[in-house]
From TrEMBL:
Transmembrane segments: none annotated. The keyword Metal-binding does not apply. It comes from Altericroceibacterium indicum. The lineage of its organism: Bacteria, Pseudomonadati, Pseudomonadota, Alphaproteobacteria, Sphingomonadales. Keywords: Transferase. This is Glycosyltransferase. It comes from the Bacteria. It holds the Pfam family Glycos_transf_1. SUPFAM superfamilies: UDP-Glycosyltransferase/glycogen phosphorylase. Residues 208-362 form the Glycosyl transferase family domain. One of its GO terms (molecular function) is glycosyltransferase activity. CDD domains: GT4_PimA-like.
Amino acid sequence: MSMLKDSSPMKMKRQSILFCMRYPDDQGFVWRTVSRLRDMVAGNLGEFDCYIAFPELTGRSVHQFEHLKPIELDGYTLAARDKEKLSHFAQEQKLAAIVYMSAMPSTLDMAFLKSLKVATITTENDSFDHTQRNSLVKKAAKFILRRILHRQIHDLHIANAVKQGEWLASFAQIPKDRIVVAPNGIDCTRFIPAGDTSAPRLDPALRWVICVSQARPEKRVDMIIRTAARIMKQEQFSDVAFAYVGDGAMAPAWKQLAADLHISDRFHFVGQQQDLLPYYQAATLMVHAAKRESFGLVLAEAMACELPVVACAAAGPMEIIDNGVTGTLVGLNDEDGFQAAVEFYLQEPTIAMQHGKAGRERAEQRFSIHRQARDIANAIRQVVNKDRD
C-alpha cells in the first residue's frame, strides 16, 4: 500500500507587531485614547498579528481591544526578566517591529533591541522644551552619532505634530528620513457637544471653567488657580467655578494654593477620571496653561465638544487652536492676558458659542483619529516591508 505524500503548502506563521505601553493597564485618562489609537492602527495592519505590552496586567483594565492581544512585559526598563521574555516572544511570534509610545533611543537598551533583529519605532507624544538650544559641541556630537553613524535612533520616529517633527530633526538631530508626522487625532463620534440627555458631573447652576492635565510642573495649573482667584473676586462672575481634572505629584501643592487663596469652595479638584466626556459637556470654557505641550489631546477633545479654549501658545496648542476663531492663544508667560481671555468668553456667551462651534468643525476636519490610525499603520508597514527587502 503506497503512502501519498501531502502536497498542500504548509501554513506560514504570520509576522507580528508589538505595541509597548509605559503604564499598567488600569491607567485611564489620555492613555485610553493612546491605547485605542493603537487598537485602530492594528485594525489597519490585518496582515500581522498585533499585541500590546503593559508593564502590568492588573485585572482592572480600562481598555477594550478588538485587534490587539494584551501581554505583560515592560519594554521600557527591560530588566533581565523582561529581556528574556521579549527575546522568547520575538522568536516565537516572528516579531517584525516594536512600536513604542514616547521612547527616545537614549532611554532604551538599543543594543539589546537591535540584537533581536526587529525594527523599532516610536510615536513621539512627550512634551519637549522647544526653547532649548544645543551648544555647538553637543549639536556636532548628536550629528555624528545619529546622522553619520546611525546610532541611537529608531528605524522610525512618528511625530504627533509638525513642531514635534521639527524639534526631532533640529534639536535631537534625528535624520529627516527617519521622521514621519502623523498629527494626533480624536474620536469625534465619541467627543460630542452636550445634549438633553447628558448627565452633568458638575453643578449645572454654575458656569464651569475646566482644565484637564496631569499634575506636573510644566502644566502650570497654579497659574490657572491664581487667575481663578482674581476672577472670583468680581461680582459679575459670582456664578463661575473652576474644575481641575487630573492628578499627580503637584496636586497637593495646587490644592494648598487654592486653600491659601480662599477659593477651595469654587475651585474643585475632581481627581483623575477614566471618562472625560461628562466634564467637557458640563463646562462653559476649557483652559490650558502648559508651557510645554507637544500636541494637547485634551484641547482637541474639548473643541469637539464645542468648548472655546484659552491656552498658552506652546507648540501643540498653536497647531490646534485657530486663534480668534476657535479660541484664544496667549503668550507663555502672559498671566494678565490669560485672565483677560477667560473673562472675555465669560462676558461674551454668543462669541463663546460661535468659537465652540468653529472648534467642533476644526476638530472634525483636521484631528480625526481614523486618519491618524491609517497614517501610522502605513508608516509601520513601510518600515517592515523595507526590512524585508
